[in-house]
Amino acid sequence: MSQPKHIHILGVCGTFMGGLAVLAQQLGYRVSGSDQNVYPPMSTQLQSQGIRLMEGYRAENLDPAPDLVVVGNAMSRGNAEVEAVLERGLPYVSGPQWLYEHVLKDRWVLAVAGTHGKTTTTSLLAWILEDCGYDPGFLVGGIPQNFGLSARLGSGPHFVVEADEYDTAFFDKRSKFVHYRPRTAVLNNLEYDHADIFPDLTDIQRQFHHLVRTVPGNGLLIAPQNDAALDETLAMGCWTPVQRTALNSGESDWSAQLLSEDGGKFAVSLRGRPLGEVAWSMVGRHNVMNALSALAAASHAGVEPERALQALARFQGIKRRLELRAQVDGVSLYDDFAHHPTAVRATLEALRARVGKDRIIAVLEPRSNTMRLGVHGAALGESLRTADRALLYRPQALAWDLSSAVGAADNIEIYDDIDAMVRHVCLEAKPGDHVIFMSNGGFGGIHGKAEQALRERG
């Protein structure tokens, strides 16, 4: 019996590339990967799947030579492993191109794009199709609790993919989603982000319009009502029907009426026709909008809307999306991926609606490339207003003055040391408080450190 072909993935602990590793293994390839930043939940997923993980980038990671190297978009020239791939003449490809050629090209692709809510909406859509018996494939930039994995092939014709606008690879500067060729495309929202690769919003809109150009005339575009940046993008040319979503609007195709302030219960209408009510575990107006997008996409794939509403009630959430990690001595500890001010504000407002007047302590790491460049610095202080206390970590490589950006906000303190932040949380947190850690990285393991410190404080 011949040895299965060996694929080696550079940047394998990224949420996209980690999912790619799982898909490649399910296709029968022998998979290994390397990464500089190894932390849960992706490292845990890879280990549970038996995928060989090498920490650090070294030329010897390519011995013996793999049949193909899949290059993550975080890789750049000068990286030791990238240089070895080029010098040895090893075959290589970008992750999005590999995904299209080996998984997507023969499937009904449902792609979820947008600045915010991609992971949640993708997970919701995959779950609706699963709960309704469609056995979809999916690749999500997180780990949906209903599945326990960020990716799978599935046996049905449908494949749901989180469609990121970030660039494809060091040798392909198009947005990832241009490769996916969806029949159903969700455009959740659009605002300025990824300042390390996009000079302005117009440049991002151009990439979104490239995606719009790839959706066939018998496909479907789903977009919120009254998102100016998306409206401008669609006005550049649209050859596909568009369905609109909105809260409390009779003018949109899909509309939701909040039945509880925290978004835990809502009613859904389709072009004015009531479909039913949803009571679920999620919170926040933004998640109700995510649900509407998922309902519209699932309906396009053939799911009866009333049946899809039932599936929402069984959705269990996503790791690192307002995930309750522990409760210690009456203190609730949450982990959340929010890093853009808009997402930070929406997450805190959702938590406030759920917990009422209980104290909220927000602990934030401005880790994303955009935040490190200071593009959204002026909006950061305002986004934290909902929290009673906010602790901001100031990493060494921050290119702007965090103190002046947040101004004289009396609920914010700035720290240069993660252990000092843990001590502050341990001293201040009282029974009934809610502590939410917000970062798109590992945040120095602060979640576990804080939990241990609270357990030990007696």
From TrEMBL:
Pathway: Cell wall biogenesis; peptidoglycan recycling. Residues 320-441 form the Mur ligase C-terminal domain. One of its GO terms (molecular function) is UDP-N-acetylmuramate-L-alanyl-gamma-D-glutamyl-meso-2,6-diaminoheptanedioate ligase activity. Transmembrane segments: none annotated. It catalyses: UDP-N-acetyl-alpha-D-muramate + L-alanyl-gamma-D-glutamyl-meso-2,6-diaminopimelate + ATP = UDP-N-acetyl-alpha-D-muramoyl-L-alanyl-gamma-D-glutamyl-meso-2,6-diaminopimelate + ADP + phosphate + H(+). ATP binds at residues 114-120. Residues 6-103 form the Mur ligase N-terminal catalytic domain. InterPro entries: Mpl, Mur_ligase_C, Mur_ligase_cen, Mur_ligase_N, MurCDEF_pg_biosynth. Its cofactor is Mg(2+). Its EC number is 6.3.2.45. It comes from the Bacteria. The keyword Transferase does not apply. Keywords: ATP-binding, Cell cycle, Cell division, Cell shape, Cell wall biogenesis/degradation, Ligase, Magnesium, Nucleotide-binding, Peptidoglycan synthesis. The keyword Transmembrane helix does not apply. Residues 112-298 form the Mur ligase central domain. GO terms for biological process: cell division; cell wall organization; peptidoglycan biosynthetic process; peptidoglycan turnover; regulation of cell shape. NCBIfam families: mpl. Belongs to the MurCDEF family. Mpl subfamily. Reutilizes the intact tripeptide L-alanyl-gamma-D-glutamyl-meso-diaminopimelate by linking it to UDP-N-acetylmuramate. This is UDP-N-acetylmuramate--L-alanyl-gamma-D-glutamyl-meso-2,6-diaminoheptandioate ligase. The lineage of its organism: Bacteria, Pseudomonadati, Pseudomonadota, Gammaproteobacteria, Methylococcales. The gene is mpl.
